[in-house]
Design goal:
Elements lengths: L9 H12 L3 H13 L1 H9 L7 H20 L9 H11 L4 H17 L16 H13 L9 H8 L3 H32 L18
């Protein structure tokens, strides 16, 4: 049996955040799925590239990608198109050396929002209480954040989590959608903080993905 942490379910939470931020649930789901499904290949590609570990470069790379993300995410409510610019963004993000760090941060936030606490790792049968937040965290981690040869399949996760197929796929979609909107809320907060501190200047317009360096 899945223990509910708070009164609100993960699905209700995803719908409410989407509504508040002006996103369609299915668009947010597609956005995060495109990212997560390419993470393993992106990290493998990055390992073959010359990496610039200069802290100043990484700081500006994060700012640039954040603004690019905000530009694309805001277009989801308009005539959204998964065009070449969109795909270039996806591959830029999954090749970034800090992508996994941010992904695990999102999982921590997701688990705590749903369960009211954060175990900080995937579910271990026989050791952990099966809560909804931990289920969603485990789905994202085991499907997308492991290596190519260690990632679990949907069928394996259904067995590990002791949930039926229809429930599993609903939880999987909620997990991916929440990943998108929690990442968006974090990016927006970091953008506002950098503007307030004078690190970056406000974007010229909603149609611009300029870096806004101050």
């Amino acid at each position: 049996m899945i223990k509910k942490g708070n009164n609100i379910t993960a699905h209700e939470l995803a719908l409410e955040i989407c509504a508040r931020e002006g996103f369609k649930y299915d668009d947010a789901h597609t956005f995060a799925k495109d990212l997560l499904c390419r993470r393993v290949d992106g990290q493998a590609l990055a390992a073959q590239e010359k990496r610039n570990n200069d802290p100043e470069y990484i700081k500006h790379q994060k700012q640039h990608i954040r603004r690019w993300y905000m530009y694309l995410a805001e277009k989801m409510g308009d005539n959204w198109d998964r065009d070449q610019d969109y795909m270039n963004f996806i591959w830029e993000v999954v090749r970034a050396p800090w992508f996994d760090e941010k992904a695990f941060m999102v999982l921590d936030k997701m688990e705590k929002m749903i369960d009211g606490k954060n175990l900080g790792r995937e579910y271990v049968p026989g050791e952990d209480e099966l809560t909804e937040g931990l289920i969603l965290r485990t789905i994202i981690h085991e499907l997308f954040l492991r290596g190519k040869n260690t990632a679990k399949t949907d069928e394996q996760l259904m067995d590990i989590l002791f949930i039926k197929r229809s429930t599993y796929y609903k939880k999987k979609k909620d997990a991916i959608t929440l990943f998108a909107v929690i990442m968006w809320v974090y990016a927006k907060r970091r953008e506002d903080e950098d503007i307030e501190k004078g690190i970056v200047s406000p974007r010229n317009s909603r149609e611009s993905k300029d870096t806004g360096a101050a």
